Amino acid sequence: MKRKEFLKKGLLAGAGVAAVLSACDNKAVVADKEAPNIITNKKYRWKMVTTWPKNFPILGESANLFAKWVNELTGGRIEIKVYGGGELVPALETFETVYIGAAEMGCGCAYYWAGKAPAAQFFGAVPFGMNAAQVSSWLLSGGGLELWQELYAQFNAVPFLGGNTGVQMGGWFNKEINSVKDLTGLKMRLPGLGGRALEKAGGAAVLVAGGDIFTSLERGVIDATEWIGPYHDYLMGFHKIAKYYYTPGWHECGSQLEFIINKKVFDGLPRDLQAAIEAASMRVQAWALPEADAKNGEYLDKMIAEENIQLRSFPQEVLDELRGFSEEAVQDLISDDPFARKVYESYSGFQKKIGKWHALTEKKFYNQIQKVEGEYS
Ligand code: CA
Questions:
Q1: Span from the CA of 98 to the centroid of ligand 1 (angstroms)
Q2: Whether residues 275 and 331 fall in one domain
Q3: Is residue 297 domain-resident?
Q4: Which of 74, 130, 216, 373 is 20 to 30 A off residue 327, Cα-Cα?
Q5: Distance 153 CA to ligand 1 centre (A)
Q6: From the CA of 226, how far away is ligand 1's center (Å)?
Q7: 377 belongs to a structural domain
């Protein structure tokens, strides 16, 4: 089926769901609320579209595991078929495919939807923002998830946590970055607010889905790219076409990944199946970062042992300037969008509080307690 036909069919299916739901009389809704744990044998077959290459380590695996765990938790009542980016629809059309109902659910990262929902970026990655532990804390214990749900409800979608990458690497370059001037004219694959900061620094940010980055870099469509960390970057082969591997990932300090479910589809589920979805989401959230950390540690050594990698750290003055540009990018975003301001106030307030706590503990652990043999610099 061609993509347009697929989307059209989904749109009709979505309208159908809406019509059926609105036609439901209130009695059904009341009965459901009174007996939320009612178990029916109704089977659900869903499509999950994703922004990741099919079966891609950790990201695609998270999507596959979610489908498997939901199937197990529901005794087979929900079957989810996972599609890689571009299989049914282009990777970056995942969000709209879900909210129009052409697929029941999706998997991706919220900053990809910045064009439709600017505030979504706070639920993906914020340059110089919070790390994985802090983001999790904000989402689960600081009101972040409720704001995320409120935002996506405007799009007929429900967000669920889908893992976190941890602090990423700063990216692959074919020249050294010694001052912010070295970013002038640089075309770099850099999503979200980090991309806006790069533009303020005189570069050009290009949004390219994961599966297309290597070719874009190889053909010179872009001069530089970031992706994730040593594990994924090694598998993508960036070390074969770029010389310098920079740290840290100032633009993605703890990128939160997501599952998105069409809201009418989710609201129409019996409560026990909704709970199974929530449980599978939290299991993916608990699985992804430990898996990424373990693999990144292994592949960092492997990459350095096997390949002629030149590791570099961004000079502090470059980071300081990028921090200023990032703050400007955030200000641009929240001055245009009242909901984004509301999310920003929650995010930045939480960041300040948890930052003070972690400065006394985590930071001292890294700086004063943990000794690393053979540390790379
Ligand atoms: Ca990235």
A1: 23
A2: no
A3: no
A4: 216
A5: 26
A6: 6
A7: no
